[in-house]
Amino acid sequence: MKVLIVGxxxxxxxxxxxxxxxxxQLDAKAMIRKEEQASYFENMGAETAVVDLEGEIxxxxxxxxxxxxIVFTAGSGPxxxxxxxxxxxxxxxxxxxxxxxxxxxxxxxxISSYDTTREAIxxxxxxxxxxxxxxxxxxxxxKSTDLDYTIIHPGKLTNDEGSGRVNAASRVERDxxxxxxxxxxxxxxxxxxxxxxxxFQVVKGNTSIDDAIKSL
Length: 216
Description:
Layout lengths: L1 E5 L4 H11 L5 E6 L5 H5 L4 E4 L6 H8 L4 E4 L9 H22 L3 E5 L6 H6 L5 H15 L4 E7 L1 E3 L6 E5 L6 E3 H13 L6 E7 L2 E2 H6 L2
Parallel strand pairs: 1-2, 1-4, 2-3, 4-5, 5-6, 6-10, 7-9
Antiparallel strand pairs: 8-10, 8-11
Helix pairs in contact: 1-7, 3-4, 4-6
Pfam family, one: NAD_binding_10
Protein name: Sugar epimerase
Organism: Pontibacillus marinus BH030004 = DSM 16465
């Protein structure tokens, strides 16, 4: 299975490309924004595609040609304003979904925020609410399509070493999770067709990632 990672140069994205390239049955195609980022992934044997997520749909669709799945891990980051949040976390996500449809890629994994419910938008701080709203509507757009989607809602992200053990369910108690573990949850979700049409929260825990994903 060839997997296009949108936002490959992000922190989860880099872990994900590494995990995929270490997998016998998966190959990564890293979608990046700058040519100078390519060597990092090419040194791992991953294919790359230089595409501006804030541009048009067609280049994204071209990058998606010939792949079997798309993982959207892109994000505007914590230090940008609401404008970038809309352009990347909402518009970028929707354009990637439309690109998947255009390229005939059915499998789509979305890395969302921990809680994107309407209640979460209303209770968020004024600075955080635009991000939650963007993620909410991107998730809703994906769920309205015919794509074979999985939506993953990770807890507070850390750079701790992954433990390979998590707690995953439709609702879990808020907690942290290493980015490395999120990457491996994505891989396990791609491997398990039972995650199609599902969304779930995931935080650190005591269950192996494979068992946690299979139990969803």
